[in-house]
Amino acid sequence: MMGKRSNFERREADFYPTPRAAVVPLVPYLRGIRTFAEPCCGDGALVRHLESFGLRCVYAGDVRSGQDALERDDYGATDVIITNPPWSRDLMHKLITHFQNIRPSWLLLDADWAHTKQAAPFLPHASDIVAIGRVKWIEGSKHTGKDNCAWYRFDIRHKSGPTFHARDQSEVVPSRRTRVCKQCHKIYEAQRSSSRFCSQTCRQRAHRNRLSVTTSVTPAPSDSSEVFRYVRHADVLRFTAEGWEPLPALDGTHHGEYSVLMRRPVEQD
Q1: Considering only Cβ atoms within 10 Å of each terminal Cβ, which end of the chain, N or C, has fewer?
Q2: CA neighbor of 26 nearest in space, from 82, 77, 101
Q3: Residue 131 reports pLDDT greater than 60
Q4: What is the pTM of this model?
Q5: Structural domain contains residue 170
Q6: How far apart are the first and last CA of the chain?
């Protein structure tokens, strides 16, 4: 087993030319795209493959020829950025952030990265993940790489997480909408368009994290002799010592699961 991540000696600048077989699964998802930039072009293999499908490259550069992708904020009049970047995480994360702020960007990365905590900040801006399986990085080798790979599309304007496209889909077909849980930051398949959490447990934890004792009590009518407030369970004893009385939760609410409704008489002048 060999490739971009393996026990073999790493190639300088993570230089692994992109084989044509890794590009073919991406092509159906490039409809409407005419031009592209390749800022980590290496020996130009990816550029040649894409141009063979009728796309036109308007910029190609590589750090090995003195063109640092992070030092350039404009790649000309291009529709998208398409590249196979280095996979060393610190550099890869910087490149994702840099590219998605310039143009919508297709990056060839390892598929498992999407399931790591370090990917959580980037996935909301990933609109699509196209699985391609293992890649034979070294021409003439009998072996494929040890990682499953995928094309990721990043766009800073997109904020609702990726749609996953399985292997061997010749057409762009809708798949289940995947989301990033707002609480645990894991990827999950949303059952509803309004979904924000992967489970009821995460929904409850998020609610508890937001719930805090407010700095003000509920205003009482001028003729009322009492004031009310919700208090976290952990703080009930302290408020009881200060003269507050616990009450049952209001009917039809779920506050009782996280807090206690308390009442205190208003001091009269």
Answers
A1: C
A2: 82
A3: yes
A4: 0.61
A5: yes
A6: 83
